[in-house]
Prior knowledge:
Blueprint: E1 25-31, E2 35-43, E3 51-60, E4 72-74, E5 79-84, E6 88-97, E7 104-114, E8 119-131, E9 139-154
Amino acid sequence: MSKKPLFAVMLFFCPFAGPADAAERIYCASSDPVVDLSLESGFSSKDQEKLVHFRGMAGVKDKSAPSGFRRFQINSDMLRQYWIDDRDLRFSIHAFAPEREPLYRVTMSMITDKSSATRFKGSYDLKVEKLKLGSTVGAETIIAHEGAIFCDIKR
């Protein structure tokens, strides 16, 4: 079971709890006036709790977003926590820009409920923050947004 520290600002997702039948891939997407987001995660067919990969693309379309977040790749290193069971699905990510000496942080949390045998619908919370110089603690919020998201299970 994967557990990583909870990123308190917006990112909260619990560890994976496996359902009776294995989910091999989960695709999530959202598009609204502020965010375009596409995620794909893969789980081991032998160990339902083992996340094999997590990747995607995102873009914050708000004009006040830093250029590093206008379009960026999402990878497993950005994943802070995840949870899936027979009722809900959650992911939590955070990223920094620029990567070497971060000035900005984007955090996104997603929570969904099962709406059919293979679909989850829910919402995400996005926050883009300008960090205090030389610190990842304390930041000024530039963008805060909530939107709809859906996820499909592919077996």
